[in-house]
Amino acid sequence: SAVISQKPSRDICQRGTSLTIQCQVDSQVTMMFWYRQQPGQSLTLIATANQGSEATYESGFVIDKFPISRPNLTFSTLTVSNMSPEDSSIYLCSVEGQPRQETQYFGPGTRLLVL
Amino acid sequence: GQNIDQPTEMTATEGAIVQINCTYQTSGFNGLFWYQQHAGEAPTFLSYNVLDGLEEKGRFSSFLSRSKGYSYLLLKELQMKDSASYLCAVGQTGANNLFFGTGTRLTVIP
After folding, report:
1. Which of B43, B42, B76, B77 is nearest to B62 (CA)?
2. What backbone phi and psi angles, to 5 degrees, belong to B82?
3. Cα–Cα distance between A18 and B72 in angstroms, integer?
């Protein structure tokens, strides 16, 4: 499976500010996914990021709030904009597996606390 | 849409066997996944079933019945380190992401 890293691993931010989370993969992948896991909850997909095209957002998530970049096949960023305490969550990127693309593998996550 | 149900919490004894059930409703079923997630860590892939039957992988086995919309994860010879949340997820045809249940928090006691 791919080795996935995320930066930062955790952060404490003030409301109204923005944070950009980076996801780096050690191999080229077509699909990268961004999930949110709120305290005590399961994972909810925010968006799918394909290289060379606009990200596809799930219902309830919009580009203005969660802009995503995907400049190449090994890297993506998720920005949490104009943060509020409700954005306190773990943000995880994942990639499709190789060779079994149905499987997804997750990065270590970014733990965000908004005050 | 998707609907995935699994028990919220379970407790089992070290050395025992535990079965974690998952029922699902989805259109365009494209596989059933189990992930393990220790507190404060990312989910790690355990198993994938797309055909009916039992898949065995060491102490862990996963079963699928597509007609019943039902799966279970079986953990044998439980160890203290198996204390974690176990997430059931389904894939959907035409969607590349996975849809996750709320997870079952398993506590293994001595």
Report:
1. B76
2. -80, -10
3. 41
Tell me the per-residue pLDDT of B64-78, one tens digit each, with 9 for 90 and over. Answer: 999 999 999 999 999
Q: How far apart, in whole angstroms, are the C-alpha atoms of residue B32 and residue B61?
A: 13
Q: What angle do CA A106, A109, A113 make, to 5 degrees?
A: 155
User: Contact A103/B33, CB-based, under 8 Å?
Assistant: yes
Identify which of A41, A102, A108 has the shortest CB distance to residue B42.
A108
pLDDT grade for B26, boundaries at 50, 70 and 90:
confident
Instruction: Compute the distance between CA of residue A8 and CA of residue B23 in angstroms, rounded to an integer.
Output: 36
State both tokens at B23. Answer: 């029922």
Contact of B99 with B4, CB cutoff 8 Å? yes
